[in-house]
């Protein structure tokens, strides 16, 4: 397994009491597989993603990334883990306005302490994989919403992550583009052999995922196969 | 596809500052914003540069005659009643001078009379500082030409009076010959006329001392073996270094203090303006910073990137401003404006501007440390 969440409990302060966002959640995601986490707004999907991304430390439970438990790691060690092992596809593309599409990817090499120019081959390969090699020199405002989302996906894969976390990638896209993005994530998951978690409230494009987990009130239902759920 | 990939000109970016990857591209992308801030830095640097040159120029017109003396210390009459040392009120006697001359560790002790008076040549007249020295003194240029009927003029004094060597002038009613024109000595904003002690005594107001001929101060050259405190106590003098003696020139102290205060405020203002700019810029960038942190960028990397951006902006702006100040200074140097253009008056203010600006920027961008990467996930809760 490349991503293991074991007995994760996460609470937030809520006035004098605490609100339980995740309640004893356990999830295993193997390499090269795509797990969709679905559920209504406020069910805990994004909290689950944030815990898996090591951006929030849970109250209890263990997060294991590529065999390494994150419990007890310092902030710097968690940052390094994110840099090397985790790719994040944000809900909004969150591209840096001053960078071209290729530079959005090259910056990943830069924050890893490598010369971004030496990483241009990998950046172009990924842009080619998402169908944007001919848009490499364009800045975010020169790209469509779907193109920006594809750059967002390519950027998440730049440092060869073991775990790919995808947060509502179709929320700002129409049906056709949403389906194309999900299809792209599915293909890349298999090609790059990442353990991918796709958080979404939209079940319409989930025909090709390997497993679907449903979250309700912070509790995760046992994963079922795509065929069983849909 | 390959052809398209190949046509993308990464190589154009060779030589760019990859160490500040995002910052460098921000600078190029937000040209208007950074040009505005750069212009502010240029203008502040220009103002600081001009003020520095003017301060140094005015300072030179106050003190160059003293700093140019071949001496390391100046002995004043010990002031009474808690008063400060003053070139205008000090009077040393021949007896004090002789005590210093004979003191162990003192290589030379030469009396120097200083007074401000009026010099006239033909229909031109100007205020001058008369510096009275002993015949053959090392204190004055061409001192072997100085006598009771001949004086040596600084270049500025000769220019003001329109005279040259061999011409005549009147100094406080005394008809004298210009023996030579030499040096660029100024004292208290007046050019210096080097005279004999006798000419100086007739020029200076009487001191009323009954202890023989007097001078204003004694210029000393001493070794480390000289016990100046003991000699001071014995002779009734107070001895300070040449640099410390400058505070005894009233006009220099007040003028230089005011100008330095203005310069200091300009430095502080520049640091505040730059700090304010980068504070706003950092707040605007906090979303991008959260994304980079979420993607694995360390805080140290982000701080380095942001500080690098500030230093690039500061360096370019400061160099431009300094260049313009130097060009303007070169234009006005030699005119009536006392502007002094030297590496110290140009480069030191530039270095201080960059250092203080970087400090202001560093204080403002430290808020990068508090940006939460979780915010990049949007509605994570």
What does this structure look like?
The complex is a heterodimer of chains A (230) and B (381). Chain A contains 7 helices and 11 strands. Chain A is an alpha/beta fold and 230 residues long. Chain A has a domain at 3-93 and 162-229: P-loop containing nucleotide triphosphate hydrolases (Rossmann fold, 3-Layer(aba) Sandwich). In chain A, helix 3 crosses helix 4 (120-129) and helix 4 (120-129) packs across helix 5 (145-156). The longest helix of chain A is centred in the last third of the chain and has 18 residues, at 175-192. Chain B has 381 residues and is an alpha+beta fold. Chain B has 2 domains: 19-61 and 253-377, no CATH class; 79-235, no CATH class. Chain B contains 12 helices and 12 strands. In chain B, strand 8 (186-187) and strand 9 (190-196) form a beta hairpin. The longest helix of chain B has 37 residues, at 31-67. Chain A binds chain B through residues 12, 21, 46-47, 49-50, 53, 55-56, 76, 79-80, 82-84, 86, 88, 90-92, 94, 96-99, 102-103, 106-108, 110-113, 115-117, 120, 124, 128, 133-134, 136-137, 139, 155, 159, 167, and chain B through 1, 4-5, 8-10, 13-14, 18, 21-22, 25-26, 28-30, 287-288, 291-298, 301, 373-374, 376-381.
How much is the radius of gyration of chain B in Å?
30 Å
CATH superfamily of the domain at 3-93 and 162-229 in chain A, by name, is: P-loop containing nucleotide triphosphate hydrolases
Low-confidence segments of chain B, given as residue ranges, are 1-17
Multimeric state of these chains? heterodimer
User: Which sequence of strands runs across the widest sheet of chain B?
Assistant: 3-4-9-5-7-6
Summing up helix and strand content along with how strands pair, one would put the structural category of chain B as: alpha+beta
Straight-line N-to-C gap of chain B: 42 Å
Helix content of chain A: 25-40%
Largest sheet report of chain B: 6 strands, mixed, barrel
In terms of DSSP E residues, the strand content of chain A is 25-35%
CATH class of the domain at 3-93 and 162-229 in chain A: Alpha Beta
- Structural class of the secondary elements of chain A? alpha/beta
Task: Give the low-confidence spans of chain A.
Answer: 226-230
Share of β-strand residues of chain B: 15-25%
Determine the number of helices of chain B (DSSP H or I, runs of at least 4 residues). Answer: 12
Gross morphology of chain A is globular
Number of helices of chain A: 7
């Amino acid at each position: 397994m490349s991503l293991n969440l074991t007995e994760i409990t996460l609470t937030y302060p809520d006035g004098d009491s605490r609100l339980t966002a995740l309640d004893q959640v356990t999830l295993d995601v193997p390499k090269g597989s795509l797990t969709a986490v679905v559920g209504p707004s406020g069910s805990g999907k994004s909290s689950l993603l944030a815990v898996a991304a090591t951006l929030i430390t849970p109250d209890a439970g263990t997060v294991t990334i590529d065999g390494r438990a994150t419990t007890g790691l310092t902030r710097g060690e968690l940052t390094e883990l994110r840099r090397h092992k985790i790719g994040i596809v944000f809900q909004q593309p969150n591209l840096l306005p001053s960078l071209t599409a290729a530079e959005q990817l090259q910056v990943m090499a830069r924050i890893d302490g490598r010369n971004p120019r030496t990483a241009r081959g990998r950046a172009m390969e990924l842009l080619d994989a998402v169908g944007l090699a001919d848009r490499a020199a364009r800045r975010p405002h020169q790209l469509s919403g779907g193109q920006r989302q594809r750059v967002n996906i390519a950027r998440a894969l730049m440092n060869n992550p073991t775990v790919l976390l995808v947060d509502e990638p179709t929320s700002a896209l129409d049906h056709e583009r949403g389906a194309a993005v999900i299809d792209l994530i599915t293909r890349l998951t298999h090609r790059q052999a990442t353990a991918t978690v796709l958080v979404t409230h939209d079940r319409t494009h989930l025909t090709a995922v390997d497993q679907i987990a449903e979250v309700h009130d912070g509790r995760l239902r046992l994963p079922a196969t795509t065929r069983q759920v849909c | 596809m390959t052809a398209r990939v190949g046509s993308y000109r990464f190589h154009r970016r060779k030589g760019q500052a990859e160490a500040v990857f995002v910052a460098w591209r921000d600078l190029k992308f937000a040209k208007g914003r950074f040009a505005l801030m750069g212009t502010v830095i240029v203008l502040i640097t220009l103002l600081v540069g001009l003020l520095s040159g003017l301060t140094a120029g005015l300072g030179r017109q106050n003190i160059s005659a003293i700093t140019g003396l071949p001496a390391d210390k100046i002995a004043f009459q010990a002031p009474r009643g808690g008063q400060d040392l003053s070139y205008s009120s000090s009077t040393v006697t021949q007896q004090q001078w002789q005590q210093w001359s004979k003191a162990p560790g003192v290589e030379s002790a030469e009396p120097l009379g200083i007074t401000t008076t009026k010099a006239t040549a033909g229909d031109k007249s100007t205020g001058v500082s008369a510096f009275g020295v002993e015949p053959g003194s090392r204190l004055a240029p061409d001192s072997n030409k100085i006598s009771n009927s001949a004086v040596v003029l600084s270049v500025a004094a000769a220019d003001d009076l329109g005279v040259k060597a061999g011409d005549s002038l009147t100094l406080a009613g005394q008809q004298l010959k210009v023996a030579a024109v030499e040096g660029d000595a100024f004292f208290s904003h007046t050019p210096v006329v080097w005279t004999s002690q006798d000419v100086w005594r007739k020029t200076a107001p009487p001191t009323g001392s009954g202890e023989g001929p007097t001078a204003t101060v004694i210029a000393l050259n001493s070794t480390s073996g000289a016990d100046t405190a003991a000699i001071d106590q014995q002779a009734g003098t107070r001895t300070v270094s040449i640099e410390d003696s400058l505070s005894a020139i009233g006009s220099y102290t007040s003028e230089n203090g005011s100008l330095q205060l203005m310069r200091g405020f300009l430095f502080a203002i520049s640091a505040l303006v730059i700090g304010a700019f980068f504070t706003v810029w950092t707040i605007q960038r906090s979303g991008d910073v959260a994304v980079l942190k979420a993607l694995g960028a360390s805080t140290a990397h982000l701080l380095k990137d942001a500080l690098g951006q500030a230093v690039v902006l500061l360096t370019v702006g400061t160099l431009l401003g300094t260049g313009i100040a130097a060009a303007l200074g070169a234009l006005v140097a030699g005119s009536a404006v006392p502007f002094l253009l030297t590496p110290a008056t140009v480069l030191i203010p530039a270095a201080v501007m960059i250092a203080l600006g970087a400090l202001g920027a560093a204080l403002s961008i430290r808020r990068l440390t508090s940006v939460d990467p979780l915010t990049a996930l949007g509605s994570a809760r």
